[in-house]
Amino acid sequence: MLAEAPRGPQQERAPGRAALPLDPGDASVVCSPPDTGQPREGPLPRPLLVGVAGGTSAGKSTFAIRIAEKFGAAKAIVIAESSYYRDSSSLGGAASAVNFDHPDSIDFGLMERHLRLLIDGREIPRLVYHRDTGVREEPGDTIAPRRVVIVEGILILAEPKIRDLLDYKIFIDADSDLRFIRRLGRDLTEKGMDFEEICRGYLEK
Questions:
Q1: Are 67 and 95 within one domain?
Q2: Does residue 18 fall inside a structural domain?
């Protein structure tokens, strides 16, 4: 029988931290105006770092975006793991064979440096990864620090250097049949993949 809904997010928080307020009415309790992007001076609070992980098509991005919306764009930002895929443009046609579900495909070292800059109240460059060409680029604009930084992706809780920076760790637990249906619909409509290719990628990766 197909699952009708995910089991839901499971939250873990660092010692000494209150539960993350996910209700819009509670969000203002822990939020303050965003930092300016300059080095911190004085007793400005460390931003809250929230990690959202889960299997493919579990609803990580949707959940992370909804958290950010509850806090407001001036107070929260979402950092996607997919922005940190390693540039594979030099592989040419072989770039299409990259396993994006493997830790080696992600530049966790760069992600860690960027998160530490945000923690220090500094801006970071915005990254964009193009799956069709394998190019990772910096368009030129930047991401300013926020009071809440949400990092979402399949593997962020599996990487110690990222996991140790997080104040809150949330895993989206969705049944595999539901995740497959979501991925099937997404890859058919957004990526133009055929059914066999989607099934092979889902089962092998």
A1: yes
A2: no
Q: Clarify whether residues 96 and 197 are in a common domain.
A: no
| Mean pLDDT across 182-192 | 64
Dump pLDDT digits (tens) for 37-72. 444 454 457 899 999 998 777 788 889 999 999 999
Whether residue 16 is contained in a domain is answered as no
Q: Which of 74-83, 93-102, 105-114, 136-145 has the lowest mean pLDDT?
A: 93-102
Q: What residue numbers bound the domain in which 140 lies?
A: 39-174
* C-alpha span between 71 and 99 (Å, rounded): 34
| Shared-domain flag, residues 154 and 185 | no
- The number of folded domains in the chain is 2
Distance (Å, whole) CA 200 – CA 205: 8
Distance of CA 112 to CAs 38, 55, 125, 159, 164, Å? 19, 22, 13, 10, 10
What's the pTM value of the predicted model, to 2 decimals?
0.68
